[in-house]
Specification:
OB fold (Dihydrolipoamide Acetyltransferase, E2P), metal-binding, 497 residues, rRNA (uridine-C5-)-methyltransferase activity, 3 domains, transferase, eight-stranded mixed β-sheet, alpha/beta, 4Fe-4S, 24 strands, 19% helix, iron, six-stranded mixed β-sheet, Rossmann fold
């Protein structure tokens, strides 16, 4: 385990402290791991001399040794003398130093079980008890991410190291700075070989110390790289970038200032995007797209647009939402926080009509274009800040009746918009499908919906981010008449699907 344990000393060459060592007194101890931390399953909990100590990478039942600064409760795992049956060897040489993944030391099956149980525990703390618990949705453990945003660091000349070198990598887990990487175990293979080549190219550019980040992403067939630069590119810089993009097969975008400054600099296919702002038409505005083949939907996106990074689990999640809704051609559906139409457009295949609501107008324009590309005419989109207390003013009470709803909010949840929908608009959809990336706000919002006459009929987690602590969930709520109990069978034990 020492080869990939979290050791700030090993990583100090990449930190901003110049490699200075921690001056605190450190002691070494041995213990048996009691359990995982309730909210952070990457941490094993031990008790030593009456003190609770958290050890990154330790699993329940293991006999370990660790080091800990005297005045701190976080320790560094040194050795595993007796390993758990759930221990796995990470496929990453910088695991424990890179700030991306936190559960690679745990088998995938155990990750699914632990995160699933954590989500259920959080729900129950808020008094939410799903009538039926379905097994987790999941796909491959590695090579699943379709986007990433590495940092770019330019090392200045210093007495303790040679400067003038560009490093491309991710946020360091323990110290200020970045962890350089050559490959990323969770990044999809078509976009996994650019790190060193990108660093070499940027190192040769005149603006090498003015490139803070690059962003890489891919769709079903095409891939792209967005380079942010804080100073104008020289003609030599442009030549270097063109050669790099051609060799890698990237659609290369550049960004000099805000989001409006993003330009398609080079396209290996000769793609020409529509001029901004995006015009609503059946013509694609980007070479990047993903499909939802079970529903005949194709969604184009630009480099900075939000999409789910795990395409296979996203497809399963959409399929599950469609199943939960039990759509017919009589249904009118409201989709809140709809984005580019990830749920809106497949729902439209089976409903009478769908209305999608999203904050940014340019995202709404793209969603409208995606609807036309997929041949859907029973969809409308509105731009509105759903987190603003004054939002939804255009939705007049009683004017449009929706009998089903999909909601996929940010991590902060949707309590404000739900309160307005019920209090100001008198809305009572028969079914609500709630998709969440935060168990805490999901529990809070489901508890509120229970006070409005809803029962949580079904719930399951989705392993959108394997090897991390992040938990995606989907729940079905049904409006229950007074004195009528839920008809769904009692909660079942969860295995993975």
């Amino acid at each position: 385990f020492a080869a990939y344990s979290a050791n700030a000393g090993d990583a100090s060459q990449f930190s901003d402290d110049g490699g200075k060592k921690d001056k605190e007194i450190v002691f070494v101890a041995k213990a048996v791991v009691d359990r995982l931390d309730e909210l952070d399953p990457s941490q094993g909990v031990v008790h030593h001399e009456g003190v609770k100590i958290e050890v990154f990478g330790a699993l329940p039942g293991e006999e370990i040794s660790f080091t800990r600064p005297v005045k701190k409760r976080n320790a560094t795992l040194v050795e595993v003398m007796k390993a758990s049956e759930h221990r796995a060897l990470p496929r990453c040489g910088v695991y424990g130093r890179c700030g991306g993944c936190s559960l690679m030391h745990m088998t995938h099956e155990k990750q699914l079980e632990v995160k699933h149980q954590l989500a259920l525990d959080v729900l129950r703390q808020e008094g939410v008890e799903p009538a039926e618990v379905l097994p987790p949705l999941h796909a491959q453990q590695y090579g699943y991410r379709h986007s990433a945003r590495p940092n770019v660091r330019h090392l200045e000349d210093r007495e303790d190291r040679v400067g003038g070198k560009v490093l491309v990598g991710f946020r360091h887990k323990w110290v200020m700075g970045s962890q350089p990487v050559d490959r990323c175990a969770v990044l999809a293979e078509p976009i996994n070989s650019f790190f060193q080549d990108a660093a070499d190219v940027i190192n040769r550019m005149s603006v090498r110390d003015k490139v803070p980040t690059v962003e890489v992403m891919m769709g079903d067939t095409e891939k792209a790289l967005l380079l942010r630069h804080l100073s104008p590119l020289s003609s030599q810089d442009k030549r270097l970038l063109t050669e790099f993009a051609r060799a890698q097969g990237f659609h290369l975008y550049t960004q000099a200032e805000g989001i409006d400054s993003i330009k398609l600099f080079y396209s290996p296919t000769g793609f020409v995007p529509s001029a901004p702002p995006v015009e609503v038409s059946a013509e694609p505005f980007s070479p990047l797209f993903y499909t939802l083949p079970n529903h005949g939907v194709k969604i184009h996106f630009n480099p900075t647009d939000f999409i789910q990074v795990n395409s296979e689990v996203n497809r399963k999640l959409v399929d599950q939402a469609i199943e939960f809704l039990e759509l017919t051609k009589k249904d009118r559906v409201l989709d809140l926080f709809c984005g580019l139409g990830n749920f809106t457009l497949p729902v439209a295949r089976y409903a009478k009509s769908v209305m999608g609501v999203e904050w940014q107008e340019y995202t709404v324009q793209k969603a409208r274009t995606n609807a036309l590309i997929s041949g859907l005419t029973n969809v409308t989109f509105h731009s509105d800040d759903l987190l603003n207390p004054k939002g939804l003013r255009w939705l007049k009470p009683g004017k449009v009746q929706f009998n089903k709803m999909v909601i996929d909010p940010p991590r902060s949840g949707a309590i404000a918009v739900l309160e307005r929908l019920f209090a100001e608009h008198g809305m009572r959809p028969d079914r609500i499908v709630y998709v969440s990336c935060n168990p805490e706000t999901l529990a809070r919002d489901l508890a509120f919906l229970q006070t409005q006459g809803y029962a949580t009929e079904k719930m399951r987690t989705a392993d959108m981010f394997p090897n991390t602590n992040h938990i995606e969930s989907i729940a079905l709520l049904q409006h229950i008449e007074p004195n009528r109990k839920s008809t769904t069978r009692p909660a079942a034990a969860a295995g993975a699907q």
